[in-house]
Design goal:
121 residues; mainly alpha; Helix Hairpins; globular
Length: 121
């Protein structure tokens, strides 16, 4: 299934249930944040090592929460008319410029936008 096909299936799912009235950008963004919180909760008390070596049950739970995040993100993009793939592509290009390989390689440092030039972006 493509992202476009998923978005269409979600639109149809919502329309069949007359949920469009509830799927405002504000409500979808709030639901997305809630689901992202549930995803975070799956990792909350795990060590870094444990989080990288999930059991099959943990993977299933994490997968369900990731699916919820994706579903709400796709609905939010659909309702707001934002092309997720285009937005992600543009963001990736901006990040490539902001975090040049020669300066950012191996560093987890977050660079404030006002310091991009000093960082090499």
């Amino acid at each position: 299934m493509t992202l476009a096909e998923l978005t269409e299936a979600l639109r149809e799912f919502a329309e069949e249930r007359d949920w469009g009235q509830f799927h405002t950008p504000k409500n979808l963004a709030m639901a997305l944040a809630g689901e992202a919180g549930e995803l975070v909760a799956e990792f909350q008390w795990l060590t870094a090592e444990e989080s990288a070596d999930l059991s099959s049950e943990q993977r299933a739970s994490v997968g369900e929460e990731m699916a919820d995040v994706l579903i709400y993100l796709c609905r939010l993009a659909d309702v707001t008319g934002i092309d997720l793939l285009a937005a992600a592509s543009q963001k990736l290009e901006a990040n490539r410029a902001r975090y040049s390989v020669d300066v950012a390689r191996g560093s987890a440092r977050k660079v404030p936008k006002e310091h991009d030039q000093a960082f090499g972006g």
